[in-house]
Amino acid sequence: MNSNLLALRPLMRASQRRFATKLTDHQTAMMARGLPKREKLIGVEDIIVVASGKGGVGKSTVAANFACSLAKLGKRVGLLDGDIFGPSIPLLMNVHSEPHVNSQNLMIPPQNYNVKCLSMGMLTPSDGAIIWRGPLVMSAVQRLLKGAEWGPLDVLVIDTPPGTGDVHLSLTQHSPITGVILVSTPHAAAVEVTLRGAKMFEKLNVPIFGLVENMRYSICDSCNHRIEFFKKSPSSQSLPDTIISLPLNAHIAECGEEGVPVVIKYPNTEYSTLFTQLAEHTLQAIGERKKFSQQDSK
Ligand SMILES: Nc1ncnc2c1ncn2[C@@H]1O[C@H](COP(=O)(O)OP(=O)(O)OP(=O)(O)O)[C@@H](O)[C@H]1O
Ligand SMILES: [Mg+2]
């Protein structure tokens, strides 16, 4: 094993996945300290974080398909798996090999579907569980971010674990995040924690680009009838604007198991078009932010 990976070794310990939406004392202390200097990643133009307060709502599915859609639009794209305890990018993107290391001892993210990918899942044995506490998780995320040769990239997409925990804090405190895409299903429990997560990003002055609503409806294959699973709930009105609403769909589920994102396997479908819209909307939002900051600096 190379020295860079060896450096990660002390961080790799056996255990279980843990997450919480409530801030721990350690996190509260970290936030109270204020923001350390946010350092730009060398060669990376913009960083987009995909997040949700809730688990299992489709964050990783959205992150993988969003990254591939950006790549299909001609952008140079990376996908960092910030889910240290439950990495799913290796499976979704079918990249399992341990990264090589360059002469400066930086990991070279393996590439698939024109997207450079890096995940703790490539560095730990698949049958090994992981136990890390706050500071170790933070340093693991920083190693994946700064210990890799990401550039040149137009957009680095970061998939995050559920909740607003150490990973989110570490990312927002140390890196200039261009914007956040929130993902939620429409059920009240998910909306509530997603709103709480949105507040954390607001507090840390990280712009929220909008919401991907997932699994509100399904379209019947035979008659094209749209089946709605949820009515609009009052709490959902407080969520950021919906960028796209994705259907519950058998192909999306199937592709998650196969390691081929749905926008690659079924490019000419309604849901693939929705992912393209998400990519285009985000690129536009990035462009608008750049215009504003240029005007501000004049
Ligand atoms: N629109 C959809 N239609 C069908 N299946 C979906 C859809 N979105 C996500 N899934 C499936 O739901 C499961 C959970 O999705 P995913 O892993 O992307 O969620 P997550 O929010 O990243 O979960 P975690 O919180 O564990 O990281 C996966 O099996 C995925 O294929
Ligand atoms: Mg996930």
TrEMBL record:
Q: Which domain of life is it from?
A: Eukaryota
Gene3D superfamilies in the record: P-loop containing nucleotide triphosphate hydrolases
The record's listing under SUPFAM superfamilies reads: P-loop containing nucleoside triphosphate hydrolases
Q: Name one GO molecular function term.
A: 4 iron, 4 sulfur cluster binding
Q: Does the keyword Metal-binding apply?
A: yes
Family under the similarity heading: Belongs to the Mrp/NBP35 ATP-binding proteins family.
Q: What name does this protein carry?
A: Blast:Iron-sulfur protein NUBPL
Native source species: Drosophila guanche
